[in-house]
């Protein structure tokens, strides 16, 4: 025995609300389990969504909740790019490093076996680009092996400070696949002062030298600057300098300083404000590369299978956006 | 085009705004731009069409008949939904009451919807007269819960079904759209059953007066008819408005309502 009025109430009340809004109707007397089945059937038939059954009532959304993933540009879909932190130690100790990297930081290397497996699974999981970062990846003795494992599967970008292209590391660089690898070298300014004030005396000159070496070796080079937000609007001299180094304009990457890691100020980046980019470290999967090593954006310790990790991130993104939308709906201040 | 076509629609649901904003977007930057004006009832909308405040009216079948009467038939229908060409009235009873046709309503209590609803009030009486035992042999109970909107909200029909469910009446006359919305007799086993379905008739249409020339309406009509269910940009509007395809009007589908309005002496205005 179920209450027939539930469906009549739903037709009337759902018809009177705007698309995406919700309505809660009483279940009435009778068997609630059967009523739930009836409401589910009605929703399936009419293209509406049963949000929840709680106690004596059912909440139904007119239409279906918009899919936040469907609203993203294809290149922003979580899992389109896979970030891998190869290691966390670094030859520099930048005062804004989001990963808290320095010469004293433990290596916590991902290792070639996991990188290879990730690259293989990434290709099958629909990832279109791999990005290796650290720490400073060129501190790893097997960096060329890691890169080869990646470039064998997908186009790859390797983030570096560009300061270590000498000796065996230069030889390692030379063994990398120029047709599949881009280098992204950090440089914050067109003159040494600003760059060196954050990264250490003499680091600007060595980074610029590294850019020249990489270009001379035939690699595509992107240059990435990390700047306080207020400086991101005065970039023409910097662009001119990069032009002089032969860096294409589309390879000038300017990003605002994030209040993460050891940075004492910068843009606040949270789960709610970031579109996730699946990021893997030795410890597990994180929401975004800017927050690797931060508990608040730790997703799961289960790196494998990678597809499951990507699905987990997408699922959380969907839930988080739905939660934010719901909160906005029930929290009018006036 | 000098100015956009102004289309009137009655605001019977919050989604009407979404629908018409979507329609306006669809026609934006074309040779047939449009805008819309919302009315609280069909009487005001027809008045606005007649005085030239709007160029087109999205009219119910009763609003069409009334516009026709007030223009001596000079108004023209431009298009309708595919679902408007096959509208029906359904007579519904509690399951198991063994009503098998309109004749079984003799001496019984039938609930009708709003008195200005063609599907739930005017045509049911017409069908009782022409295909049943005559309206005066049946006890008619009217639920006038959304007068002015010609039954668009469906509320009076749902109230009629509640009355049947609560055994305050033997049967209800409702539109096929309401019958579909409650899942016909499939979602609530043992609740309702249909014992008579009317012939199909026409429902809403876009109505224009002769003062709005074809040169203004034709480009708009061509674009309207080109809306495509398989186009993801068009589909949400079509879904919300309850159609798969816009079609040319089927005017003979209004014959029964013209007759009903005459027979029942329903006022030509409002």
Q: What's the CATH topology label of the largest domain in chain A?
A: TIM Barrel
CATH architecture of the largest domain in chain A, by name, is Alpha-Beta Barrel
Largest sheet: number of strands, sense, barrel closure of chain B: 5 strands, mixed
Helix content of chain A: 25-40%
> How many β-strand stretches of chain A?
12
Total discrete domains of chain B: 2
Q: What fraction, in percent, of the residue positions of chain B are helical? A: 25-40%
Inertia-based shape of chain B: globular
Instruction: Report the average pLDDT across residues of chain B.
Output: 95
The total count of helices of chain B amounts to 9
Order of helical and strand elements of chain B: EHEHEHEEEEHEHEHEEHHEH
Structure notes:
The complex is a heterodimer of chains A (334) and B (270). Chain A has 334 residues and is of the alpha/beta class. Chain A has 2 domains: 60 residues; 232 residues, Alpha-Beta Barrel (TIM Barrel), CATH 3.20.20. In chain A, 34% of the residues lie in helices and 18% in strands. Chain A is built from 9 helices and 12 strands. In chain A, strands 9-8-7-6-5-4-10-11-12 form a 9-stranded mixed β-sheet, with helices on one face. In chain A, helix 3 runs parallel beside helix 4. Chain A is elongated. In chain A, 40% of the residues are buried. The mean pLDDT of chain A is 93. Chain B folds into 2 domains: 142 residues, 3-Layer(aba) Sandwich (D-Maltodextrin-Binding Protein, domain 2); 110 residues, Periplasmic binding protein-like II (D-Maltodextrin-Binding Protein, domain 2). In chain B, the strands form 3 sheets. Chain B has a 5-stranded mixed β-sheet with strand order 2-1-3-11-4, with helices on both faces. Chain B has a 5-stranded mixed β-sheet with strand order 8-7-9-6-10. In chain B, strands 5-12 form a two-stranded antiparallel sheet. By secondary structure, chain B is an alpha/beta fold. The mean pLDDT of chain B is 95. Classes of the chains: A alpha/beta (334), B alpha/beta (270). Chains A and B meet through helix 1 and helix 2 of A and helix 1 and helix 5 of B.
């Amino acid at each position: 025995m179920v209450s027939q009025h539930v469906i009549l109430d739903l037709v009337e009340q759902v018809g009177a609300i705007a698309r995406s809004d919700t309505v809660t109707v009483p279940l009435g007397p009778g068997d609630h389990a059967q009523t739930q089945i009836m409401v589910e059937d009605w929703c399936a038939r009419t293209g509406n969504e049963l949000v929840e059954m709680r106690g004596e009532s059912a909440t139904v959304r007119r239409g279906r909740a918009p899919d936040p993933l469907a609203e993203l540009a294809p290149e922003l879909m979580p899992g389109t790019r896979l970030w891998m932190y190869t290691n966390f130690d670094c030859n520099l100790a930048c005062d804004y490093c989001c990963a808290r990297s320095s010469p004293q930081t433990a290596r916590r290397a991902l290792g070639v076996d996991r990188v290879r497996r990730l690259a293989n699974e990434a290709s099958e999981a629909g990832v279109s680009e791999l990005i290796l970062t650290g720490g400073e990846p060129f501190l790893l003795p097997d960096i060329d092996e890691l890169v080869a494992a990646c470039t064998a599967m997908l186009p790859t970008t390797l983030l570096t400070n560009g300061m270590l292209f000498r000796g065996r590391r230069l030889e390692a660089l030379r063994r990398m696949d120029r047709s599949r690898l881009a280098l992204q070298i950090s440089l914050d300014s067109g003159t040494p002062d600003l760059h060196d004030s954050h990264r250490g005396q003499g680091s600007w000159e060595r980074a610029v030298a590294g850019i020249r070496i990489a270009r001379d070796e035939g690699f595509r080079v992107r240059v990435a600057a990390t700047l306080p937000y207020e400086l991101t609007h005065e970039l023409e001299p910097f662009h001119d300098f990069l032009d002089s180094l032969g860096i294409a304009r589309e390879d000038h990457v300017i990003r605002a300083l994030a209040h993460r890691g050891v940075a004492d100020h910068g843009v606040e980046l949270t789960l709610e404000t970031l579109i996730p980019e699946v990021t893997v470290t030795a410890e597990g999967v994180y929401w975004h590369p800017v927050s690797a090593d931060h508990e608040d954006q730790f997703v799961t310790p289960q790196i494998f299978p990678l597809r499951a990790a990507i699905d987990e991130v997408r699922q959380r993104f969907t839930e988080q956006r739905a939660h934010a939308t719901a909160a906005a709906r029930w929290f009018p201040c006036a | 085009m000098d100015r956009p076509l102004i289309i009137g629609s009655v605001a019977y649901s919050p989604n009407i705004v979404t629908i018409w904003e979507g329609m306006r977007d669809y026609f934006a930057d074309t040779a047939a731009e449009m805008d819309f004006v919302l009315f609280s009832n069909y009487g005001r909308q027809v008045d606005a069409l007649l005085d030239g405040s709007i160029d087109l009216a999205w009219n119910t079948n009763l609003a069409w008949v009334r516009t026709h009467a007030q223009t001596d038939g000079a108004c023209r229908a431009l298009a309708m939904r595919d679902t408007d060409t096959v509208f029906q009235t359904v007579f519904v009873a509690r399951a198991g009451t063994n009503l098998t046709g309109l004749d079984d309503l003799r001496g019984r209590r039938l609930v009708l919807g709003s008195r200005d609803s063609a599907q739930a009030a005017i045509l049911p009486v017409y069908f009782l007269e022409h295909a049943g035992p005559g309206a005066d042999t049946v006890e008619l109970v009217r639920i006038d819960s959304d007068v002015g909107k010609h039954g668009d909200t469906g509320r009076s029909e749902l109230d009629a079904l509640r009355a049947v469910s609560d055994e305050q009446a033997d049967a209800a006359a409702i539109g096929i759209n309401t019958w579909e919305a409650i899942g016909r007799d499939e979602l609530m086993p043992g609740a309702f059953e249909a014992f008579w379905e009317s012939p199909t008739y026409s429902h809403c249409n876009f109505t224009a007066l002769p003062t709005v020339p074809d040169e203004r309406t034709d480009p708009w009509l061509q674009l309207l008819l080109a809306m495509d269910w398989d186009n993801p940009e068009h589909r949400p509007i079509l879904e919300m408005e309850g159609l798969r395809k816009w079609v040319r009007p089927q005017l003979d589908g209004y014959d029964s309502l013209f007759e009903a309005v005459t027979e029942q002496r329903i006022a030509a205005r409002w």
